[in-house]
Amino acid sequence: MTPAQLRAFAATVRLGSVKAAAADLAVTESAVSIHIAHLRRELGDKLFARTANGLAFTPGGLRLASRAAEMLGLQDRTILEVKQAGSGRRLLRVAASSLFAEHAAPGLIELFAGRADDLDVELSVHGPQEFASLLLTRSVDVAIGPRPATLDDTMTCTHFLNYQVIAVVGPDHPLAAAASAGTAELRGQTWLLGPSAVGRTGMVPSVLRRLGVPEHNQRIFQSHAASVDEAKRGKGVALAVAFAVTKDLAEGDLRQLAGPQLPARGSWNLLTLADREAPPAAAELRRFVTTPRATQAMLRGAGVTAGRFRPAIHVTLWS
Asked: Which pTM was predicted?
């Protein structure tokens, strides 16, 4: 069983056809078919069959698909660790929800990376629903965001910070003087939202669902800061992390709205593989993130210098 064979099978499973897998891997269809044929002979399992609706996988094929992604991720991790050992540097790959990445990650990463001269931190933004897969395939070492609905024995979850999401408007907005609004009134407003509103997992989508805000009343911005800036101009209602807009509220640039489901309370959690699987730097961050110094850095929102962490190539705010 070779990495090339596993990669061919994993691509076939992920894309649903041998043709698509061949295009993704930049090889011929016959090459993918040969790799899969070798796996079938070695494992004594048909793995999958073609049907009118696509590929139907055997129980063994489904098990191999899961293991293939894990084994390939472990291979990539091993290559990375060998290179790091040769260069004398370590790399910690952190996946974060967009809300945490924008509001709390810079201060945390600056402080944590500053404790070790040989450590680089790579930050990428993903939807929380992707965290388990990213960890199990060793695509990242740490994931930070809301606690998953289910958690199995392969991962550990460390809660470290509670936060509030509040609704804010500019001082010239019609609701600014009222300071509170009912569900129907809120539902009819224009909502100015950051990228965390995309998808169904997380605090912001949960608030929007509970209020029943229709999609045509939602405007999604590339960052949460951009949505709050629009709210300051009286363009609508924004959802903001409370500690991030404290100064704006104090100076009168924003007004907080009270109403049903508001403010909403959430928590940030750090996910890693179980201790025996997690790299040492991930275990270090798990211990560090619960300290008072780490909490202060996240709430302070200190900017991070360019040399402290590097974004992954696949960073996106539209997970």
From this structure: 0.69
